[in-house]
Amino acid sequence: MSLDGDAITHNLNRIDRRGKGTYHRVMAGLSQLIAASKDNKLPYPGIICVINPDKNGKRIFRYFVDEIKTPYISFIEPDFTIDEMNEKRVEGIGNFLLDVYQEWEKNNTPKINRHMSLRVFNDLLSILMISGTEYEKIKKVNYVVITVRSDGYINPDDILRNTHPELFNQNYNLANSTLEEFITSEAILGLYRGIFTLPEQCQACGVRKLCRNGFCFGSLPHRYSKENGMNNINLFCKFYQEICIRLCNYAINKGKTFAEIENAIY
């Protein structure tokens, strides 16, 4: 469920058509989902929080963990491109993420808390922890996200709507097209060739395999510009790099060797 923090923070942007905040209705729905999960009717619900650069990441994280008591959280950056970049906004979001990482690491010290997952950090830690093991030999594949609208039309990931609006057309519909036709169309292949090709500046980065220019953080619009398409360094590069380095140190403290870490990141 989408929940951006406490009532004041959430209601800044999550309003209904009448301009009223939705926090209390969201919380009522979340309570019903939690109750249903305790009856084994569905998995425990997770929280998706869009980062507010003016808020404190530590406080928002602790609110979710200590007061809402949700074990599954995903923090996502607002969608904007390099052309729409505001330096203060970028710094605020990046520092928010660093604050969240610090609290997440505290929550996993001295022992990894397997009953609480912050999606991006836990996913990246898993990559580091399986390095050098049998699990690492499992074939890795690139994945794509597809949006299927309620009217049956097939589009790319919604996160790309403001970078590639021309791809959000009505050329493919489940009524007369297959998912394979959509994915193998030249326009979609070209899109993902750009996404999976790292810019030249990334080649010397020590954590390039772990970060993949923000791809592993779910950050795509933040590397896009009208001039160069996806061939740009991510706006949050320095923050992602710092988080990756901290994760590497954390994994080493959990027993991984430098060689295993190097294999996973470079």
Automatic annotation (TrEMBL):
<protein>
    <recommendedName>
        <fullName>SPASM domain-containing protein</fullName>
    </recommendedName>
</protein>
<dbReference type="InterPro" id="IPR058240">
    <property type="entry name" value="rSAM_sf"/>
</dbReference>
<dbReference type="InterPro" id="IPR013785">
    <property type="entry name" value="Aldolase_TIM"/>
</dbReference>
<dbReference type="InterPro" id="IPR023867">
    <property type="entry name" value="Sulphatase_maturase_rSAM"/>
</dbReference>
